[in-house]
Amino acid sequence: MHDEQDEGQVTTVRARQQVLETAILGLLHDAPMHGYELRKHLNLVLGSFRALSYGSLYPCLRGLVSRGWIEGTETMDGPAVSTRRARIVYALTPAGKEHLQAELATSGPASWEDEHFDVRFAFFGQTDAETRLRILEGRRSRLTERLDTVRQGLDRARGRVDEYTLELQRHGLDLVEREVRWLDELIAHERGSTTHPTTGGGRPADPGPTDAMRAVRQDRPVVDPGRTTQKERG
């Protein structure tokens, strides 16, 4: 029993490490950053529920450097010589860019699980349309399974738990249903984008943003109701 628990914990730690690595590489793809900048941007990408500490960031950065995926360059920061301090700026290497592209091209089950989906979605701008669609459809399939489980649990709970526990379960059901609707809208948008005739420049014409895409373009927060449900249930 303990061996199974230990194995599960190791798997979870590895999954989180991979998520952090992908997020770092994706951010450095846009521009080089020092550690403090990376931490701020990572908190936006990963969400406040995954509070990122320097204790987890810098070992990950050292690991990426050792694998040749990023490189660090010392720069002097400060207006005067007496107040300047060395600061390492990290940049993506060609090998790191190649690894990131390969990672963002994958669309297996891990990409639509709770631990990975939000980070993969955050970098959809660097992901090809077919892969985006496969991930969204996979995520919807996973949420549909979860929806059935939540409904069955709600049916079993009626008459057996107090009204507040029952209301919490209804709330969880509502959150999952809303994410499924959100995914339906995104999937419809992606299918429209991939099937719409091309413009004169050879690029697909934009069929127009959905409400979900308008929210993304306006930098409104993307909620993962499935994970919120788990958190609220303790």
Task: Give a verbal description of the structure.
The chain is mostly helical and 234 residues long. Among the domains are: 14-77 and 85-107, Winged helix-like DNA-binding domain superfamily/Winged helix DNA-binding domain (Arc Repressor Mutant, subunit A); 128-194. The protein is built from nine helices and three strands, in the order αβααββαααααα. It has a three-stranded antiparallel β-sheet. Strand 2 and strand 3 (85-92) form a beta hairpin. The radius of gyration is 21 Å and the shape is globular.
What keyword list fits this structure?
three-stranded antiparallel beta sheet; mainly alpha; Arc Repressor Mutant, subunit A; 9 helices; 234 residues
What is this structure's SSE topology?
Elements (H helix, E strand, L loop, with lengths): L1 H29 L2 E2 H12 L7 H13 L3 E8 L7 E8 L1 H11 L9 H9 L6 H29 L5 H33 L15 H7 L7 H8 L2
Keywords: DNA-binding
InterPro entries: Metal_resp_DNA-bind_regulator, Tscrpt_reg_PadR_N, WH-like_DNA-bd_sf, WH_DNA-bd_sf
GO molecular function, one term: DNA binding
SSE arrangement, N to C: HEHHEEHHHHHH
Please estimate the helix content: 55-70%
CATH homologous superfamily of the domain at 14-77 and 85-107?
Winged helix-like DNA-binding domain superfamily/Winged helix DNA-binding domain
Mean pLDDT, all residues: 79
Q: Classify the fold: give the CATH topology of the domain at 14-77 and 85-107.
A: Arc Repressor Mutant, subunit A
How are the strands of the biggest sheet laid out side by side? 1-3-2
Q: Architecture of the domain at 14-77 and 85-107 in CATH?
A: Orthogonal Bundle
> What does the overall shape look like?
globular
Tally the beta strands: 3
The number of helices is: 9
Distance between the termini: 22 Å
What can be said about the biggest beta sheet? 3 strands, antiparallel
| Structure class | mainly alpha
Which radius of gyration do the C-alpha atoms yield? 21 Å
Keywords: DNA-binding
InterPro entries: Metal_resp_DNA-bind_regulator, Tscrpt_reg_PadR_N, WH-like_DNA-bd_sf, WH_DNA-bd_sf
Organism: Cellulomonas marina
Protein name: DNA-binding transcriptional regulator, PadR family
